[in-house]
Design goal:
One of its GO terms (biological process) is ubiquinone biosynthetic process. This protein has about 400 residues and is α/β, with parallel strands linked by helices. It is built from 14 helices and 18 strands.
Amino acid sequence: MLGALRRKPFLLGGSFCDGGARVTLFWRGHQLKRRQCLQREIRTSSQRSTVMPGWVINQYGPNDVLRFNKNVMFPIIHYPNEVIIKVHAASLNPLDINMRNGYGAASLNMTRDPLHTWTKGSEFPLVLGRDMSGVIMECGLSVKYFKPGDEVWAAIPPWKQGTLSEFVVASGNEISLKPKSLSHAEAAALPFVALTAWSALINTCGLQKDNCTGKRVLILGAAGGVGTVAIQLLKAWGAHVTAVCSQDSSALVRSLGADHVVDYKSENVEEQLKEVDLFDLILDNVGGSTENWAPNFLKPWSGAKYVTLITPLLLNTDRLGIADGMLRTGVTIATKAMKHLCNGKHYRWSFFAPSGVSLDEITQLVDEGKIRPVIDEVFSFADVPKAFAKLERGHARGKTVIAVI
């Protein structure tokens, strides 16, 4: 309850920019105090008070569109519930590869500019990167539960400027105090994948520690970022987990708590799964042809769910436009859900959902030793293109982390 209250935005008081001029709102009787608070300056050079280094793209395309820019516009607080964070570490997700290629641009640009007042291409220069761990440098007026100097972590929504830069702006609703047991590099590996797994298991499936004991769960693509977190969450709640991955990753997923490992390279996965009991939940991080056969291994007429993270929503809006794309997506999900419901099974899509309150609970699980980050490799800030190239090759075990500092 306290976590939810602390992130309720307040509309009175704050600072914002209007045509480059800093406008200050203050309450009567506290003019001097508020003015002094708002005029705090970040301790940087005069040049860095207006620009900062970061990795940007000025067009969509392959890896060579990435550019290092020393003059990225310094982020500013537009709303009173926002904070400016100095990024110590970030990490990459498959979504960053897709966004670099232009995937989801129609929907994301609509979110950035609902009234279409901007011109085409106005999202550039675009900073990628969703995960971050860092230190708060400045707080808006209604931010009451964080202060400058706090170490925090967050997953920034994809319609905002990303974390592959020296500073980033985030809402107080999106951040949480960093787990004390993790370094910044370790912490940066978790937020996006942890919140994606959390959204799938809790928001979509209705699972939690009170009702998960004894549930049989199958995870497809278990060695990826979302899969490794999902295994740990489910085991912390008492579920039985079967993980599908390659033989090379079997030791990793077993170390995270998986009870049974299926090697998709050794023989047909369907044949191997016929030898085990049916499942209460299937979490699909792979998509494609798995959707055709995976639901067959759910317990019928028991409330069992097939949940996939691979959906056609953004692809449809890119190809057909917002209105037609949303219509096509609605028809698709309704058709598939009805088809599986007739067989006594539930079909669901799940999406990443930014939430500082959920990160509060994940922080507690991390500090209790129930969840740990799985890091494949750490790159320097100068090697961001190499990190993208590695992630694009696929088959990573865990996350690719960028040490910004």
